[in-house]
Design goal:
The protein contains two helices and three strands. By secondary structure, it is α+β, with helices and mostly antiparallel strands. It has two domains: about 70 residues, no CATH class; about 35 residues.
């Protein structure tokens, strides 16, 4: 939902009966949270791709017919996932810093 207009290549675009998204990202997230809080058995199905800590699901926002895949984690491993997020953030910051320094070196070499 990065853009307002629908992706015409999406196999479900015709189901939306509009040429633009009916809801924005924050509304979508609020609605999907409410739906999953009420029940994990309605429009939420495992696609049988499981790892040691994670599983993939297909989830449909019932009210607007949006379909997406979701990576879910077993509650016992949430702390591990939080540590993973910190590591990826550190890697991202480190990579950006290195790119900036490399760019500065390159621009000095051009002059």
């Amino acid at each position: 939902m990065k853009e307002d207009s629908l992706d015409k290549m999406c196999s479900n675009a015709l189901n939306h009966e509009e040429s633009h998204h009916q809801i924005d990202k924050s509304t979508f997230l609020n609605l999907i949270r409410q739906q999953l809080f009420k029940s994990l058995n309605i429009d939420c199905k495992s696609i049988d791709l499981h790892e040691a800590r994670e599983a993939l699901f297909i989830v449909r926002l019932t009210s607007h017919k949006y379909i997406l895949t979701a990576k879910c984690i077993i509650i016992d491993f949430v702390a591990h996932l939080k540590r993973e997020v910190v590591i990826y953030e550190r890697l991202r910051v480190t990579s950006v810093s290195r790119l900036i320094r490399a760019s500065q070196r390159s621009s000095r070499d051009l002059t």
